[in-house]
Amino acid sequence: MSAIKICLAQLNFKIGDFEGNTAKIADTIFTAKQKGADLVVFSEMSVCGYMPDDLLDYPWFVEKCEHSLDAVAQSCQGIAAIVGGVMRNPHKGRNLQNVMCFMQNGRIQKTIAKTLLPTYDVFSEARYFEPAQETDIIEFKGHKIGIAICEDIWDIYNDFEYNASPGSKLKELGADIIINPSASPFHLGKQSLRNRVFGGQASRFDIPVIYANQIGIHTELLFDGASRAVNSNGEVAMQLPDFEESVGYISFDDGVITSNATLPIEIDEIATLHQALVFGIKDYFKKMGFKKAVLGSSGGIDSALVQALLSQALGNDNVLAILMPSQFSSEGSITDAKKISENLGNEYHILPIENIFNQYTEALSSVFEGREFNVAEENIQARSRGVLLMGISNKIGNILINTSNKSEMAVGYSTLYGDMCGSLSVLGDVYKTQVYALARYINKNHEIIPNEIIEKAPSAELRPGQKDSDSLPDYDMLDEILKLYIEGKKSKDEITMEGYDSSLVERIVNMVNANEYKRYQAPPIIRVSSKAFGKGRIMPLVAKYQ
Amino acid sequence: MSAIKICLAQLNFKIGDFEGNTAKIADTIFTAKQKGADLVVFSEMSVCGYMPDDLLDYPWFVEKCEHSLDAVAQSCQGIAAIVGGVMRNPHKGRNLQNVMCFMQNGRIQKTIAKTLLPTYDVFSEARYFEPAQETDIIEFKGHKIGIAICEDIWDIYNDFEYNASPGSKLKELGADIIINPSASPFHLGKQSLRNRVFGGQASRFDIPVIYANQIGIHTELLFDGASRAVNSNGEVAMQLPDFEESVGYISFDDGVITSNATLPIEIDEIATLHQALVFGIKDYFKKMGFKKAVLGSSGGIDSALVQALLSQALGNDNVLAILMPSQFSSEGSITDAKKISENLGNEYHILPIENIFNQYTEALSSVFEGREFNVAEENIQARSRGVLLMGISNKIGNILINTSNKSEMAVGYSTLYGDMCGSLSVLGDVYKTQVYALARYINKNHEIIPNEIIEKAPSAELRPGQKDSDSLPDYDMLDEILKLYIEGKKSKDEITMEGYDSSLVERIVNMVNANEYKRYQAPPIIRVSSKAFGKGRIMPLVAKYQ
Question: Which residues contact B437 (CB under 8 A, 6 or more apart)?
């Protein structure tokens, strides 16, 4: 058994970009070979990116994937690599398998399929794949390498326990190391969960575990990397940075991983959230081929925060703010909105909507006659702004970014086709209380988001003197109840038993349920929590709720 | 072995309405007992309705389900019943199982779990359920009854073959009949598929098969019933009507099912499509507690058809048409739009949008200055209409119904937040060529949809003299290519090889791919094809396509 040098590759793949992804993989193999590595480990489904969803239903996509794996294998001369993709299942059952290929001497030597197929929350692997029927081990330079693909090492870390334990099987087969190529999306709290899982499994099986994750935004899903090598005592020997393409080198000898890399410094939750959102925006624009953004700037905290995040991600010159005051907008809001653009150096335009609003109410007068001002008129204002923003986006090409936060999205305090417009929702998984914390974080060195915006009472300003608190409880309490219902999946009774007023709980939960129809048509949301609205939370519209 | 009389219950359940669903089930059991039935068979997940999606993640929902099953069992005195629901999985693996309970003498005697969990297209059962680990048989009055839950009898009828065959297992265990409680959604062509499956499996196992389906709309999914009893020679002994609550009685003796019911008359594809859409609208409104609809009436065929379908489903008094001509609308469109409302006796209003449009372009003049009239101005018109329609919906409570067809939705010939607004899309799974066929079908006895609307060249009328054919190929050819790409999952090359111009195929497929982002925010679509946009076709936005 000789010492082996392993290169851990944490890369940003684009779904379906076989040419780009394989070039990146081949380059990494080439460099690793120059640096004397024996083996390079890539993340799950590396050649196609994770997750292509129903592109997997197209035979051409699968053929390209198989072809890419073969092509990459050819570059493995004098070095070995573990590369991921999908392949046709040669047996009965679902048409495909999620595989890692062990490549050496210019060809695929062995193909390992995934056993545990996550099918919950944002995952739907059972939609495409047949699980592995058997467990196999890779012999390499006197070592027995076990490959457990992503979920394969999470067998006891869900809210249910799988029937199979691929890690235990690998241990039985004599593996002296487990490699865990992954596509493990970020959410707040995921790092401590990973510490628990990798430390726990390395100790449980008494062998080191190497975890190789991808980075990048893939529609709603944000991948943070944080790839690492963990020794059998649970200690992290090497860890790659979050949200960055990076490669790391480790030595494996005598059952122990060594590395001379320094571990990344841990940052707190709000700093992590900030990093995640800025990276998410940046990578979304890059992968979509977009450069410039436009947003509605109301003078409120949500749009101010999004504007700051966009400016940090895209550069101040690439953010256009549109102020669209109505007769109900306070002078302060306009001043505050101007100030954030000035602080950031963003171009801005002021397009008042009063005349547009009046035209609408005039056009609708025959239908509206004799009825009071209500949510209809409020929504017309929000939708007039949506039309202006989309018009600008269509005309000059800046991409409209949505500014709704998770608390509003939850209770429906938002207008469908109005402030819910946009191609990407930056804050749709960020609660209002987190919005405030992020704003303060951004201002930590000097004032970027005007303090007036942070301090004033939140208002939609869609009717005279309106305040959010007229129809919603304090955001502190609202967010607590929402978290118990959405992330915690607790019932009204259970939430009430935690000490909240039962009629308030009843009202809030009913608001969440009654607004499923709005969220059905919401933009994709950058996912930063363990339970985001969107593909990870699929609710029926035609149903009787609790 | 004595003759048994079986009641087949095809009911309309509402998801999560445990009280309503169990009352309906208990009533049916009561009546069946009076009529001398020995056994009543209900559809899959009858107490909770199929499919509650992530409501299944909430423990209270599962508890209510289990409680409802116990409650229904109490009404099984002197009669047996097979009733569906979900239960907690007592073993390792996923938390739940999809079960049918055999009830007799006031309690659940046996619980059978589903083995094959459909997880493709609109199905995601592996997201929630652990499959059955063993197969069991029910002894009843000297008979051996096998229960195969929905997919359990489709083992060889997918684009892949399952590893397990529950029907074969039941046959091995000596079943003399297979009961197949189902939640089998409708799509065009499903009837002939069912003929093949039930006839084929009854013959394969050489025993009769009884299929009990639900009816009703469950968000996107439409269930048509068509429950039936098929003898081992493949002949249908009894069949319940489509899209209707209905119960049927059969005798089972000596391996043969007899019935004195007459079989429903088969209708052609367009008549079926018409029946499906009218039923879908009606049931959607009923279950949501809605009464009245509003739609934009452009004088074009899509809105005319939707208006006719809404009138047939809800009654002429419950449909409000809004005509919103612009400076680009032809006189003919306004006349035609008036005529359809007059033919149907629908209330209508004319709200011109020219002034609103002009207000927008004025407000945007500083941004738009020096740029040509383009899609931005076109979309402003469509969105102005969306704002008016939503304003009316918000003010008077009529529900906005979307009128986009599948061909338009496919190529993005539609405006997000404009004509894509609405709480339900009636034609989002109906190709333009089918739209014409439906219009002619509706006019079969007398003119309801003005012939001028059917005959004229389609136009969005968003710029002077615009015709759909300016930017799209003929709908006949467009629809053929779209079907090959969407339903057929063929590549550009494969479609070209079927005899289409390669640059046209390239252009159309690229349009479909480039417009995933619009469909991401589309309303729920009544599914009538084997591959509808929406939950059955999940595509990444951040990706490189073919």
Answer: B270
Amino acid in the structure at residue A535: K
The residue extents of the domains of chain B are 4-259, 271-467
Q: Which CATH code is given to the segment(s) A4-253?
A: 3.60.110.10
CB-facing half-sphere around the CA of B343: CA atoms within 13 A: 20
Which residues 177-236 on chain A approach chain B with CB closer than 8 angstroms?
217-219
Closest residue to A544, CB basis, from B16, B120, B391: B16
3-state helix, strand, coil in chain A (%, to 5): 40, 20, 40
Q: Give me the interface pTM, i.e. the ipTM.
A: 0.96
Which residue is closest to A285 within chain B, CA to CA?
Answer: B542
Q: Say if residues A154 and A161 touch (Cβ distance below 8 Å).
A: no
Catalytically active residues of A, by annotation: 44, 114, 150
Mean pLDDT for A201-217 is 98
Global model pTM greater than 0.90? yes
Whether B52 contacts chain A with CB within 8 A: yes
Smallest CA–CA distance, residue A511 to chain B, in Å, is: 16
Does CATH number 3.40.50.620 belong to domain B271-467?
Answer: yes
Give the pLDDT band (50/70/90) at residue A41.
Answer: very high
d(CA A515, CA A415): 11
B241 vs A363: CA distance, rounded Å: 47
Instruction: Give the distance from residue A425's alpha carbon to the nearest chain B alpha carbon, in angstroms.
Output: 12
Verify whether the Cβ–Cβ distance B14 to A417 is below 8 Å: no
- Give the closest of B53, B356, B423 to A538, CB-based: B53
pLDDT per residue as tens digits for the range B108-142: 999 999 999 999 999 999 999 999 999 999 999 99
Residue type, B370: G
Q: Which CATH number fits domain A271-472+515-520: 3.90.226.10, 3.40.50.720, 3.90.1150.10, 3.40.50.620?
A: 3.40.50.620
Q: How far apart are CA A85 and CA A100, in angstroms?
A: 6
Tell me which CATH code domain B4-259 carries.
Answer: 3.60.110.10
Q: A365 — contact with chain B (CB < 8 Å)?
A: no
Quote the tokens at residue B71: 């409650």
- Does the CB of A368 have a partner CB in chain B at under 8 Å? yes
Contact B302, B422 (CB under 8 A): no
Contacts of A423 in chain B (CB under 8 A): 517
